Each structure stands twice: as structure tokens, then as C-alpha cells.
Amino acid sequence: AGWDTIIITQIMTSVADSGMVARLATKEAWSWTESTLALGYQNKRGVLEYLKAKAIVVLRSLLAFFFTSTVTALIVRMLISSGVVIMFPLLTGLRYLGCSAIDMQILNMSYPWLGLPVERLRAQNKPVTPLIVAHMVRVVVLYSMYEACQLAWGIWLYDKPLPSGLELWIYGIVMIWEYYSMIYLRSAAAIYFLPRFTLVYFIAFHFYLYGTAYGFYPVALLTMFLAMCHSLVFCLTRLEVPASSRLEVSFDQPRALYTALPWTAWSAMLPPSWTLFLPLNSRAQNIYDDPPDNNNNNDTDGPPNGAAAEHQGEDQGRGGGIGG
């Protein structure tokens, strides 16, 4: 990859016009235009043109981050909600083959958003197959759309000569972010800092990507990935573990920050997909947290200050008893 960068850059600058280079052995091709070559001469422009070019780079980087992260979050959500449906026909088939030790109740409890509807259908003597097939079709259709998005947005966002497969590596790194966020991102500090770290690393890589005609992009992407891994490990060891020790995150409160909807829902249901785009608006509190300060509360419907202080003292006493 290093020699490719040197040779392709030399050819591009020597031709100084639109062109294309192909490698017959691997069937790779790199094409460029005059606008691509102009990226290597941004420092020779005027101040206004230079600032305009950098503003466009920031905008394109933010768009790339938005589209890649959102579509990846949706596909991860779909794989969790519907992808596990394959377990139901698989375990059912194993039971028909004689594996009577398999308990379907464990599967229903592990995935209640699928298990409880299956139990309800069976209790009403209705077929379960349409439900299973519907989820399978959903997986096939949405994952096909995800693959199509990689190709389409690769043309829109990365319309310049790049090493083969670089766009797929970018999507793969974003997929790691999303799975990590789903499993490990639970404390308030990690939720606050990690997205900002990853955004900075992502934009820094795209500044180099959009600011050069052809560069050492695999090395830059590897650097971004290693920096991201450092952030993931740091948040896990320095933020998540202490948060779990002080019960900011627990079995009853799996996340410190969450999005609360203003209506009740079936406890076995997953939130709608559009809630992925809602901001976090609530914070969980456990019995060891300090009670809210009601002294500055101007709500006239609340108890007097003396009553509020009395209730706070009772709560603190109960908290101390439990802690002891």
C-alpha cells in the first residue's frame, strides 16, 4: 500500500490532468480529475478560498459521520431485534430431532420481545411461522439496504481515488463503535466523552482524506482505529468499572442516562427505531445518590422547607442503614 501511494501520486502530479491507473493483477483502478489534483495545492490558494475549502471538508466529514453512524446503528438494532429469530426454528428443529433437554422457555426469557409473542400465539393455537418469517424477511431486506448504502454513499462521500476496500473498513470500524456502545457504554461520563472522542478521530482522519489528492490512507485509518481502541479501553477501565463499583450502573439501572418516553409501553417490547434519534433526557438514580435539593425549589405545591428537610433526613437515614 505504501508503494501504491508513492507511485500513484507521482503519476497524478506528472500527468497534471484527468486520468486513470489500473493494476491488472488485482483489477484495481484509480481515476482522478483536475479537481482531485487541486486538493494537493490548497496551501497555495488565497485565504478565503482556503477557509472555504476547509469548511467544505468539515461539512463533508460531519455528513460522513452522520450517515455511517446512523445507518450502522439501525442495522445493529435490527440484528438484535430480528436477527436472533433464527434461534427459534433452529432450537425447535433440534427438539424434533430428539434433543429434549433444550428448554424453549430459556430462549423466550432471553429474547422476550420475540418469546412472549410466540407464547401468546401458541396459547391461542395460532401459527408461529408467519411471525418468524416476517422477522427473517425484515433481516434480509434491511441488511440488503445496508449493503446498498455502503456502495451508494461510497460514491457520494468518497468520490476520489482510494485504496480498494477502504470504505468498507470505515463502516467496519463504525460497526465496532456501535456494538461497544450497545454493550459497554453505560456510565454518564463514558456516554458524555466517548462519542466526542470518536467524532474528533473521525473528523481528523477525514481532514486528511479530503485534504489530499492521494495519501497514505490505510496508515491514517489504522491510526484512527488504534486511537479509538485506546478510547474504548480507557472508558471501560477508567469510567465504566468505577461507575459499576459505586452502583451508578447496576442490574436495576443498566444505563445512567436514557431517553424516557411520555407514555407507557409493554415491558417486553423494544423501543421504536425512531427513538435512536431522540436525545437523552433522563438520568437514573439509585438509593445511594444524594437526594435532590428542595431548598431552592419554587414549586408552591410542594411541602414546606421543614417538611422537605424532614423527608430528606429520613431518606438519608434509610440510605445509611442499607449501606451499612
Describe the 3D structure:
There is one protein chain. This protein is mainly alpha-helical. The protein has a domain at 49-159. Helix content is 62%, strand content 4%. It contains 11 helices and 4 strands, in the order H-E-E-H-H-H-H-H-H-H-H-H-E-E-H. It has helices at residues 2-15, 34-38, 47-81, 87-96, 104-110, 112-123, 129-157, 166-183, 188-211, 217-245, 305-323; strands at 19-23, 28-32, 257-258, 282-283. Strands 1-2 form a two-stranded antiparallel ribbon. The protein has a two-stranded antiparallel ribbon with strand order 3-4. Strand 1 (19-23) and strand 2 (28-32) form a beta hairpin. Helix 3 packs antiparallel against helix 7 (129-157) and helix 9 (188-211) runs antiparallel to helix 10 (217-245). It starts with a helix and ends with a helix. Mean pLDDT is 79; it is low at 297-324. One of its GO terms (cellular component) is endoplasmic reticulum. Residues 293-306 have a biased composition (Low complexity).
- In total, the number of strands is 4
The gross shape turns out to be: globular
Q: Give the helices and strands as they follow along the chain.
A: HEEHHHHHHHHHEEH
Strand order of the largest sheet: 1-2
Amount of helix:
55-70%
Mean pLDDT over the full residue set: 79
Question: What Rg is obtained from the alpha carbons, in whole angstroms?
Answer: 27 Å
Q: Helix segment count?
A: 11
Keywords: Membrane, Transmembrane, Transmembrane helix
Transmembrane segments: 62-88, 166-185, 192-210, 216-236
GO cellular component, one term: endoplasmic reticulum
Biased composition (Low complexity): 293-306
